[in-house]
Design a protein that fits this description.
Helices cover about 90% and strands about 0% of the residues. The protein has helices at about 1-15, 20-50, 50-55, 55-90. The longest helix is centred in the last third of the chain and has 34 residues, at about 55-90. The radius of gyration is 20 Å and the shape is flat. The N and C termini lie far apart (about 45 Å).
């Protein structure tokens, strides 16, 4: 865990030093997309190898959809009042 936090702090430092260079952001965005795709590929392979998950995929998928929809609805319900409050304070 400490290694992850050190990497985060190092990344913040590098970002701070190179914050005025616009093309670094483009390179960073493409690198993040690539690493994210590799991570998702590895996650898919790990799920495909695990027989317990594959055999219960339909049940787990339904639970996941219910949780995702609940999270979206909860986010909308709790952020709309704050949004309207902030919009009213601008005028």
């Amino acid at each position: 865990m400490i290694i992850i936090l050190l990497c985060l702090v190092f990344g913040i430092g590098v970002g701070y030093v190179f914050r005025k260079r616009g093309n670094l952001f483009n390179i960073n965005s493409k690198l993040v997309d690539f690493v994210l795709c590799i991570t998702l590929l590895y996650l898919g392979i790990s799920i495909g190898i695990n027989d317990a998950i594959v055999s219960r995929l339909l049940d787990l998928g339904l639970d996941s959809v219910i949780l995702a929809v609940g999270a979206i609805i909860g986010s909308i319900v709790f952020t709309l009042p704050i949004y309207y409050l902030l919009q009213r304070s601008k005028h």
